[in-house]
């Protein structure tokens, strides 16, 4: 899952599955990979949101998604990425409003016809076990990192379906704060290449466990989650998906030597989540 930046010429090197080009008040997104059907997911999301939640996301202009180099042209939306700002309560209110609108905008019959987002289509525990299968032996000299890998492996061995009932929503499924643009009053959302029918608990976990949210922006997860009226069952589901995503980030960060300091923080964060 990678950031879509509508405020610069390129997404960050090393994290991008696409390139962004600007043409006046329009944006052209050129996909570098599409194994998960990213171009089609993005185009479907933009067209649905233009109909059912106008103003929340870029307006689609044209597509060439069946080409050998898929592209989508869309209108440029105003705002600056929240990843670049000191987050306040107004920003968090804006995120909550935008997410609620995104999650609930599609009529039930329309949502039922939207394919599930890739992680939920495969099954989160299956996806995580596959991710962890290549590094079952704790690979780091740091004691807490080793302990985090060992504890994560035990969790994956025992993980079952999360408690509570799913709340079906239309989800963006990418928590990078670069995808949330603030115009001074409202939050708009970009980058829908992993979008699909999802679970609200999963979508909230994707965001609060993203490195841009808790590490770069320094936001406490509870400050956002408290803005949603979650039942006890839904909170249990959020915790389950947060634990899974924290394991995901442990593996991602371990593969990036330039993020050794963040890896240690992630290990500590994961251990705290798994102890809950």
Rg over CA atoms, rounded to whole Å, is 18 Å
Q: With helices defined by DSSP (H or I, 4 residues minimum), what is the helix count?
A: 11
User: H/E element string?
Assistant: EEHEEEHHHHHEEEEHHHHH
Low-confidence stretches: 1-14
Helix percent reads 40-55%
What is the overall silhouette?
globular
**Strands, count:** 9
Q: N- to C-terminal separation?
A: 27 Å
The description of the largest β-sheet is: 4 strands, antiparallel
- The overall pLDDT, averaged over residues, is 89
Beta-strand percentage range: 5-15%
Sheet with the most strands: spatial strand order: 1-2-4-3
Structural class estimated from helices and strands: alpha+beta
Structure notes:
By secondary structure, the protein is of the alpha+beta class. It has a domain at 18-75. It has eleven helices and nine strands. It has helices at residues 38-52, 89-104, 108-112, 118-122, 124-132, 143-158, 200-208, 211-216, 221-225, 232-254, 260-274, and strands at 18-23, 26-31, 60-64, 71-75, 80-81, 168-171, 180-182, 187-189, 196-199. The protein has a four-stranded antiparallel sheet with strand order 1-2-4-3, with helices on one face. β1 (18-23) and β2 form a beta hairpin.
